[in-house]
Amino acid sequence: MCNSIVKFIAHQDKKDKFRFAERSRALEPADTIIVIENQKEYIKFSAILKILENLNQFLRIISNVLKLFPVNIGNFIYDRIAIRRMKIFGRTNTCEYDHETQKRIVHLS
Fold first, then answer.
1. 24 part of a folded domain
2. DSSP secondary-structure letter at 55?
3. 3-state DSSP call for residue 33?
4. Looking at the domain assignment, is residue 109 inside a domain?
5. Residue 106 banded pLDDT, cuts 50, 70, 90
6. What is the maximum alpha-carbon separation in the chain?
7. Which of 9, 94, 98, 109 is deepest in the core (most CB within 10 A)?
8. Structural contact between residues 49 and 42, judged by C-beta atoms closer than 8 angstroms
9. In angstroms, rounded to a whole number, what is the distance separating the alpha carbons of residues 21 and 36?
10. Of the candidates 55, 24, 53, 50, which has an alpha carbon nearest to the alpha carbon of residue 35?
11. 107 in a domain, yes or no?
12. Total domain count for the chain?
């Protein structure tokens, strides 16, 4: 899923707002998405909402509709999808990105 979600965000992000980094496994499980904006951290459902509201008008509308759900319900759904992500989105052995997406990857040490 890392391959498809990163490609999707990079393709939709016309304003070049997002950067991508692999997280240390000690910080969060591999199936958790995190968005950091203005030194504030958004995790799981809140991160998805933040991404959607920053991509395009249609996805911003979807984000506004999803904001009607309480965060705990959104996180519950997020966790169910994360558990089944390999069945839903398929499995890839490597995360290969085009040159434009690779420029957005931040390498943490």
1. yes
2. T
3. coil
4. no
5. confident
6. 38
7. 9
8. yes
9. 11
10. 50
11. no
12. 1
Is 80 among the domain residues? yes
Asked if 12 contacts 59 with a C-beta cutoff of 8 angstroms, the reply is yes
Is pTM, for the whole model, over 0.90? no
Domain hosting 15: range is: 2-102
CA distance 58 to 55: 9
Query: What's the mean per-residue pLDDT of the chain?
Result: 83
Q: Which residues of 29-55 are buried (b: 16+ CB within 10 A; e: fewer)?
A: eeeebebeeeeeebbbbbbbbbbbbbb
Phi, psi of 77 (to 5 degrees): -65, -45
Q: What percent of the chain has pLDDT over 70?
A: 79
CA dihedral for 46, 87, 13, 102, sign (positive or negative): positive
